[in-house]
Design a protein that fits this description.
Layout: E1 8-13, E2 20-24, H1 26-43, E3 49-54, H2 60-75, E4 79-85, H3 94-108, E5 112-121, E6 124-131, H4 133-163, H5 169-179
Parallel strand pairs: 3-4
Antiparallel strand pairs: 1-2, 4-6, 5-6
Length: 180
């Protein structure tokens, strides 16, 4: 029957009782399976791990810069390995390193969740953070709401400043700046 239709007889489930066979074009079937596999590989996203290195005696400006880069990596959807490197006598005070990592967690806030807690491995202490998409979306919406509220509030203060005639405009603007 398969030869008459110029198709192949393919055994689909040899372990079944009785074995299951289908009449199909096997070359076309293999091509379609390859296309499905290719499509699924194309849709999957590659998650890369970025690394940000800190030191126990890091300055405020350097700390802020590194945290800003860490937040950018999380916003891009990358996992981030936060490494704190110790040298010399710094190994005697691992609590300083855990304090720095706690500051990093506090600075990142809800944008990142901790995959692996900080642990000391040789001369370095490291933890892995991954992006928390729900929290990032909520934070973005809160920022948008805050900026729109600030814009509407400043427009209202301009209206109040132009409507009042009992004093100079400059004194009215200064008093409103003191309130906010």
């Amino acid at each position: 029957m398969a030869r008459g239709l110029d198709l192949d007889l393919v055994e689909v489930a040899p372990a079944a009782n009785p074995p299951v066979c289908r009449i199909m074009d096997y070359g076309k079937f293999r091509y379609e399976e390859a296309q499905k596999a290719k499509e699924s590989r194309r849709k999957s996203t590659q998650v890369s791990v970025k690394e940000v290195k800190f030191r126990p005696k890091i300055g405020k400006g350097d700390f802020d810069t590194k945290v800003r880069h860490l937040i950018e990596f999380l916003d891009d959807g990358h996992k981030v390995k936060v490494t704190l490197q110790f040298r010399g006598r710094e190994m005697a005070h691992p609590e300083l390193g855990s304090r720095i990592l706690d500051q990093v967690i506090e600075a990142v806030g809800p944008l990142g969740k901790i995959d692996s807690q900080a642990r000391l491995e040789g001369r370095s202490m490291s933890m892995v953070m991954s992006p928390d998409k729900k929290a990032a979306e909520a934070a973005r919406k809160a920022r948008e709401a805050e900026t729109s509220a600030a814009e509407s509030g400043s427009a209202a203060s301009v209206v109040v400043a132009t409507e009042t005639d009992d004093g100079p405009e400059e004194s009215t603007i200064v008093s409103e700046e003191q309130e906010s």
